[in-house]
């Protein structure tokens, strides 16, 4: 089954996820969707110092949004802020230094942020693909800690702040790679399998899609969406998947093309009219499963994911 999933997915990717796939899809875009002014609205973007996060931040800054860039590395964050400010002239850009694999730090950051700022849109973009099993200081597998638990805690902690605002949105930058994975709640930290960083990442991205769907059912006043940026030429792809990058580099999307749907979901009135909880690719909702791939999960499995994340996250919540 894994061979079938991977083959069907790769052929789909060659057709849809590449630069030519974007060129084909973009013929149907409505330019007016992004001809908006979002002055006065506040956007938080994690992993915003490079790649899709930075490209998203730049486009939102051009449209007047107040930006909160959440980054792990101070030096790279300050450089990104300078570049975005220079390019856009937007002075309302704020830096927050945070490691998204540190659950206690995320709770503390979110609680402080809630007392000092408003928030209209949360963009969960930060992620990692570590190809050897590494543990954080808290004993958590690092991919899971960053991609799944970190996203869960930050979103959960900021939901009350988002609910206070007009037209609140939460966007998760997931990956089409999740299509090759069925949700597995039995081994969330990859303790009982031969470790494969690419598949662990894909499983984390499946978990993010399930979270999006589950949150949308509960929090009706917030618009939730997940998305796939396509195969883009980003620093993360170059470092985590060097062989794939070398083989595909002439076919990869630009960072701006990868970010396009994130920006659309974040700022366009058209996006807010879509049903909450969907998975998007090139401004269109798409299926979260490949044909005949047997990746559907039960309601019990999906509820178990939420239950486990809630229990685990509470262990790190400051009293």
TrEMBL record:
Pfam families: adh_short. SUPFAM superfamilies: NAD(P)-binding Rossmann-fold domains. It comes from the Eukaryota. This is Dehydrogenase/reductase SDR family member 12. It comes from Chelydra serpentina (Snapping turtle).
